[in-house]
Amino acid sequence: xxxxxxxxxxxxxxxxxxxxxxxxxxxxxWKLTFFAINKKTLLQIEEILTSPIFYGYPEHHLTLLKQKIxxxxxxxxxxxxxxxxxxxxxxxxxxxxxxxxKSLPVPGWFPxxxxxxxxPTFVFQILGIANTAYTDSSIDILSWILISIASGQFExxxxxxxxxxxxxxxxxxxxxxxxxxxKHHKKIIKFVYKIESMFLKGVFLQxxxxxxxxxxxxxxMMILPVVSMQFFLTFTYFVCMMCExxxxxxxxxxxxxxxxTIGESLYMSNWYESNLTFRKxxxxxxxxxxxxxxxxxxxxxxxxxxTLTSILRSSYSYFAVLQRLYDP
Length: 328
Hints:
The protein has one domain. A hairpin with a 3-residue loop joins strand 1 (296-297) and strand 2 (301-302). It has helices at 2-7, 12-37, 39-49, 59-90, 93-96, 118-163, 171-223, 229-260, 262-267, 276-288, 305-326, and strands spanning 296-297, 301-302. It is built from 11 helices and 2 strands; from the N terminus they run ααααααααααββα. The chain is mostly helical. A two-stranded antiparallel sheet has the order 1-2. It is a multi-pass membrane protein. One of its GO terms (molecular function) is olfactory receptor activity.
């Protein structure tokens, strides 16, 4: 594929198509490498989830947690369907598009006669694309579910803080309940940082590459005939990439917003009815929770809706440059 990029360097359309596939493959290898390197962290995440403080909730708390997890599952199912659709469309232009007749799903240079071994090469590429899409989407979906759990745990913590009765309960019971909430908060933060070290270092390149992938696919959709298999393939791939980046930013934003309102939940309780010493501890905890828990990709890019806006803005800027170069 690298050789093909060099060969097509003067053809903007073919170069965009080759770079689209090449960038996707590089980001997948990067993400898979980080996943393999940090595989021991996954066991630590599992150990945190089995901690007693993370389960044994009443029914209304479980409802909050299930709602968050269900949102992550819905996003994962949608992304998996889009991935399957993209893989399905990938091979169709080779048979139904006259301009792509006898072409391969992934452009590239081969040290043999492709026409002689067309079908074995075609099957090999489709299987490789399907395996890449399945593995890549599995890593993403796993991270989305874990991030959803973190957001749900923050919601449970907020409910626990609001439910403490500082006036009627005895001081020892109140102190034990508050200490449990503080430990719960620390455990959730540890859980979030483990997710970040396990998955989001690999996602950093995904965010960076998404700017170019969205740009290339948008450019190809502009110049391809609307009524063509190649256009449907490019459109499905475009939606798939948009979904991948958007879900990361959306779920990361959920963690940030839920963690930033923990102090408000505590403030809405009757904490002022407690004794002076305990009120000092409450104020310290509220000051601590003023700083929201922000998930970052690679320690640099925060997962937020503002980041998604920046990605789309940058993609459009590069798209405008490509359009100007293509249209004299």
